[in-house]
Structure formats: structure tokens, C-alpha cells
Amino acid sequence: MGDMDATGNVAGLAFAKGHGTRNDFVVLPDIDRAIDLTAELVAALCDRRSGIGADGVLRVVRSENDPDAVAMMAEAQWFMDYRNADGSVSETCGNGLRVFARYLVDSGLAQPGRLAIATRAGIVQVDVATAGDVTVDMGAPAVFETSAAAIDGVKYEGLHVSMGNPHLVCITDVSLNSLNLTRRPEVDESVFPDGVNVEFVNVIDETHAVMRVHERGVGETESCGSGACAVAAALAVRQNVAGGEWDLDVAGGRLRLILDAANGHVFLRGPAVLVAAGHWLAH
To answer: Distance between CA 14 and CA 83 in Å, rounded?
Structure first.
């Protein structure tokens, strides 16, 4: 952690910057949970003009040092404290988990192999080698009722899926390029009282689809890992299959989705790249 000046402002805050299919994050190593990570600080870090710029913040904390993770410390040494760009707290993030695991290995905090990482959605198993793609066992999706999202007065039917965080997957024949995602899609707030990530999907064939996503607390992003896994669940329902594999194209690249018919878990595979490290000199 950086030093405090006389006014109590953080100066010289150590960080790394990484992305998974261009869903980008500020990584804050805070082993002892010493940083007062307020919503205002998160928003300042994520600001793309006056901050570092990111879709969210991944705080690296020992599980034993965080009240949200202490119950998981025996099984997972590290807790991914994930915050959306607006400062709100989130349960989990598939792309963030890959970047988080890559940071642990590249910084020497963990050895390559299978890592158990604590999140607010529970413990997640991640396979990370010394280089290359990272694979996350995102667990079994929970599929609920259908709902709808509206853009510019047009409704798109979707499937409510939870990956530990809420998603609404709208598979449509409407060209994704025509959708206006500059504003938050309108949804039924009685179904999604805490907000929802909304995925819009075009199916190319039985093993290939394309997605755009509007993430709660962020806006449109170039990728969403948990959203991609929710898409896998929706594709399985659409195809009436218990398992399968799909390539999913997002604005930031391609993800591989594997739905295991034996246990119902979705595995998310894709790149995780650290691009910078330094110290943020707070305002």
C-alpha cells in the first residue's frame, strides 16, 4: 500500500493492469486489507480520463483478512474482492478470475496449476499455467424464468440465469450491431432488484455464437466471463442438451465455453494478460 499524506489521501497506490478479452481491470495487491476501498476510490481508479481506466477493480486479499472470505480460508488462501467501475460490490467475474489468477502466478503469490480462489459467490477452481489461456470452473448455472429487456421501446425476450451473479440472456435474430447499448436496458426490477447483466446473442450455428453485453454498474463492456457462461446455459436450454462446447465471440476476442453434462458445471477458457504495473498518484 502507498503512504498517506497529511490529509489522509492515498499516494503511490501500487497496482497492476490486466484484461481478459479486453474486459479490463485494475488489480490492487492489498494482502492485509489495509486500503480503505471506498466506492469513490474505485470509481476514481476506473475513470478512463483521470484515473487508470478499467471496467472494475480486483483487490487481492488473503482470505483470512477479509470478513467476506474468512469462512473460506481453509480451502482458498486468496480472496478476489471484485468491485464494478461505479464502486458497487459484485459477487464474481469470470474474466476477472482469469486475470486475478494470472496475477497470483506472475507475481509469485501462487504456483502454477490449480488454484482455489474465494469470491462472494463461493470458492472457484482455476487452472493457470505459467503462460497461455486460463480456465475457470464457474460452477453450475441456475436457470430461472424468462423475462425481457427493452431497448428504445423494443422488447427482447430472455432467460434469467444466475452464475452467482444475475444475468438475462436474450437470444435474438436482430443484428447485434443495430442495438443501442449506450444506456442501460430496461428490465423488470421486481425480478432483478439488484440490477442485472444483460447479454444479447446471435447464434451462428450449434457450436458458435456472438455476444454483446451491458454490465450492471459498468455499461457495455467488450467481454463478460460470467455472462458468457450464462450464454452457455441458455444455448443448452435452446438446444435441449445437458452438455456441449461453444465458441463465443465478443468484442474483445473469443472465449471457449464447456458445459460438463456430468456435473452441470460451465468451464470458461480464454486469455488473461497483464499489461502494466506501477503506482497511482491519487488526486
So the answer is: 17
